[in-house]
């Protein structure tokens, strides 16, 4: 039996890197909780509600099981008409229910201060076919049995412009220092 051939690509972002790619923030009082997104609730609404119940404005989270009644995701690829190295494509819709295999994300304030989730994950459709990418949290809806969530707060994320990728991405912040992260 031979190993499968896997093709890799290297992506170079157009902007200059002005800081290390590994950034950290430390929270003095780390908190964790298990939560549940109700059937019919969007991932966005459910995760926002759960962090609000924790009294947290930022954190990380993982979907640790459940089903989606509606599942939409996006994948990124290069486009010649973009000033960025990659762009997310149109939504890919999974017909019928999808099983949450694994997903992890960031929660925190957007550049305009509104709650923002960024979630990447792996899903399986009713035939067992794998799917994955950037989950559209406003359009993914918890299915029968809901979705279980592991939430982590104490340090979290805030959206800020990233000069290297030319996207607004999440940067770490601590609840002890809630000032927006400004790369320099």
Number of strands: 11
Please report the number of helical segments: 1
Distance between the termini: 50 Å
Alpha-beta content class: mainly beta
- Please describe the biggest sheet, giving its number of strands, its sense, and whether it closes into a barrel: 7 strands, antiparallel
The general outline is globular
Elements, N to C (H/E):
EHEEEEEEEEEE
Helical residues, percent: under 10%
* Arithmetic mean of pLDDT: 81
Low-confidence stretches: 179-184
Gyration radius, in Å: 17 Å
Query: Approximately what portion of the residues adopt beta-strand conformation?
Result: over 45%
Q: Care to describe what's here?
A:
- This protein is mainly beta and 184 residues long.
- The chain contains one helix and eleven strands.
- It has one helix at residues 43-54, and strands spanning 31-37, 59-74, 76-77, 87-88, 92-94, 98-109, 115-125, 130-135, 141-153, 155-161, 168-174.
- Strands 1, 2, 5, 6, 7, 8 and 9 form a seven-stranded antiparallel sheet that branches. Strands 3-4 form a two-stranded antiparallel sheet.
- A hairpin with a 4-residue loop joins β7 and β8.
- The protein is globular.
- The model is unreliable at 179-184 (pLDDT under 50).
């Amino acid at each position: 039996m031979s190993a499968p051939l896997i093709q890799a690509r290297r992506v170079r972002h157009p902007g200059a890197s002005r800081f290390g790619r590994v950034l950290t923030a430390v929270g003095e009082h780390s908190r964790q909780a298990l939560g549940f997104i109700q059937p019919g609730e969007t991932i966005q609404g459910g995760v926002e509600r759960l962090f609000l119940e924790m009294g947290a404005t930022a954190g990380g989270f993982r979907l640790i099981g459940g089903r989606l009644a509606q599942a939409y995701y996006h994948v990124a690829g290069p486009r010649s008409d973009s000033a960025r190295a990659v762009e997310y494509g149109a939504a890919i819709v999974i017909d019928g229910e999808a099983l949450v295999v694994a997903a992890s994300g960031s929660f925190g304030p957007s550049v305009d201060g509104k709650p923002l989730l960024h979630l990447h994950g792996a899903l399986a459709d009713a035939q067992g076919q794998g799917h994955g990418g950037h989950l559209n949290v406003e359009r993914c809806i918890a299915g029968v049995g809901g979705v279980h969530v592991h939430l982590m707060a104490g340090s979290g994320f805030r959206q800020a412009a990233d000069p290297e990728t030319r996207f607004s991405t999440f940067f770490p912040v601590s609840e002890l220092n809630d000032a927006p992260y400004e790369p320099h």
